[in-house]
């Protein structure tokens, strides 16, 4: 049986979170400042139920936290270093090759 190091599990979890464009938009929006779900839904143009599902996924992955704020709930990155990591990843991917498209892994090998 294959043993996976904890660091690999964490990176794979982060990768799964980044695999969805809506979750990427949420993480990028939250890297700038905490936000309320209604504002996030409006900003990225998705329905509130759909946004709620994605926020739940990001919470389950440990990437965002829900902070009670009176009768509302505010979301923010679980650790400020995630914002720096997202910026580094974003700029590194753009710097490497801008003319590549990653196809679905089910279709063929990615990149």
TrEMBL record:
Residues 3-100 form the HTH arsR-type domain. InterPro entries: ArsR-like_HTH, HTH_ArsR_DNA-bd_dom, HTH_Metal-responsive_Reg, WH-like_DNA-bd_sf, WH_DNA-bd_sf. This is Transcriptional regulator. It holds the Pfam family HTH_5. SMART domains: HTH_ARSR. It comes from the Bacteria.
């Amino acid at each position: 049986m294959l043993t996976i190091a904890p660091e690999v599990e964490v990176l794979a979890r982060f990768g799964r979170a980044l695999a969805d464009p809506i979750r990427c938009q949420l993480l990028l929006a939250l890297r700038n400042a905490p936000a309320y779900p209604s504002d996030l839904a409006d900003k990225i143009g998705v329905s509130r139920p759909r946004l709620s599902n994605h926020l739940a996924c990001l919470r389950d992955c440990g990437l965002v936290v829900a902070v009670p704020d009176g009768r509302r709930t505010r979301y923010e990155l679980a650790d400020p270093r995630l914002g720096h990591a997202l910026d580094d990843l974003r700029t590194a991917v753009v710097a490497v090759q801008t003319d590549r498209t990653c196809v679905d892994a089910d279709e063929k090998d990615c990149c």
